[in-house]
């Protein structure tokens, strides 16, 4: 049996559920652009409900009860399952594969790890290791490019290396 592939949205919802049972409306509030997680990765309410359905379908979450809604229909309370918690924990240890993925994927993982009360230091170090070769190659190729894309990549590499260094200092 193959492990179902989850989207970043599904991982974000699963991460919120791992903090405790909740319903879609409350999860969407945590992924609103003004909330801590939403500052990293904003998810609109319909996509939260779609992600919940998919997580139930894959066996990573389950409905456990319903409660009366404030002004609308009953709210279905979900919780993460053991397989869901295992999959989330595995994903939280996997570094992003590309510099471009740090903006959402890595920051989301970092935020979820911090919210769980654990240190993100292992992820930070693994992230640096995963990108070392790419960052070194971009640094070695530093010239005065006349290609705006290459210039962007070089600046991102410099900023990423500095960011990971500062993060490691912050958590050691």
Which helices and strands, and how do they pair?
Blueprint: H1 8-18, E1 22-23, H2 24-30, H3 36-40, H4 45-58, E2 61-67, E3 75-80, H5 82-93, H6 102-115, H7 121-140, H8 148-171
Would you kindly provide a written description of the structure presented here, covering whatever features stand out?
A hairpin with a 7-residue loop joins β2 and β3. The protein is built from 8 helices and 3 strands, in the order αβαααββαααα. It is elongated. It folds into 2 domains: 8-93, Winged helix-like DNA-binding domain superfamily/Winged helix DNA-binding domain (Arc Repressor Mutant, subunit A), CATH 1.10.10; 115-171. Helices cover 62% and strands 9% of the residues. The protein is mainly alpha-helical. It has helices spanning 8-18, 24-30, 36-40, 45-58, 82-93, 102-115, 121-140, 148-171; strands spanning 22-23, 61-67, 75-80. A 3-stranded antiparallel beta sheet has the order 1-3-2. α7 packs antiparallel against α8 (148-171).
Largest sheet: 3 strands, antiparallel
How does the overall form come out from the CA principal axes? elongated
CATH topology of the largest domain: Arc Repressor Mutant, subunit A
| Number of E strands | 3
Q: Kindly report the average pLDDT value.
A: 92
SSE run: HEHHHEEHHHH
Can you identify the CATH class of the largest domain?
A: Mainly Alpha
Q: Order of strands in the sheet with the most strands?
A: 1-3-2
